[in-house]
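note to self — DONT lose this again. spent like an hour looking for the file last time. sequence + predicted structure for the chain T wanted, 261 res
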Amino acid sequence: MGVSTSFPETRGNRENPSADKGVAVVTVDFPPVNALPVDGWFALADAVRAAGRDPGVRCVVLAAEGRGFNAGVDIKEIQARGQSALVGVNRGCFEAFAAVYECEVPVVAAVQGFCLGGGIGLVGNADVIVASEDATFGLPELDRGALGAATHLARLVPQHLMRALYYTSRTATAAELHAHGSVWRVVPRDELLSAALELAAEIAAKDGELIRLAKSAINGIDPVDVRRSYRFEQGFTFEANVSGVADRVRDTFGKEGAESG
């Protein structure tokens, strides 16, 4: 349980895997649905940044154990701890999303099952997404008394579809995102990690210094400042909490069979 990092053998480092790791896999495991507590978001940020700083790593795979990739924040923690948890999770999500975006090497997200709320922030900041056939993506924020991550959903789907998904809290399938070009491959669930590792190995076969320059160059021409844009959204989440709107909505969460926390 928690966040772990491993270094699988890939085509890019088989001859001497101990000297040149090539690919790092950062895995999230917070049962039952990978709804991360405050500390979990910071741990994830630290793990991704550490993997990117490792001179032997040229690509990071972000993966998860369990039924789904990510169910967002742990709402029960916010309900129990109040504003201290809200501030903590806002900062934690901000750091985790930024860590993925700013990782010194490309990040491949391997997504299975549900990818909701904060999960959209993670994959929206990743460089490439590989998804299982059962993967679904969405922002149920309005049903949870929160706002945010529209910045990242807008990186996955066209503007008007983003708005429709956001206002309705509906989800999009991996196949639909593949049709929009934001998901690289859709594969059977039991092939997900191998497909992500195959792509990561292809990336990791490039020159390590050059791939880092490429990541910085691509981030530098991004038309949207994702950090500033997401931080702007977070201000409205805080406003909803201060006004009491968030509590009113959040108190109904889970009472109608909602799956994720």
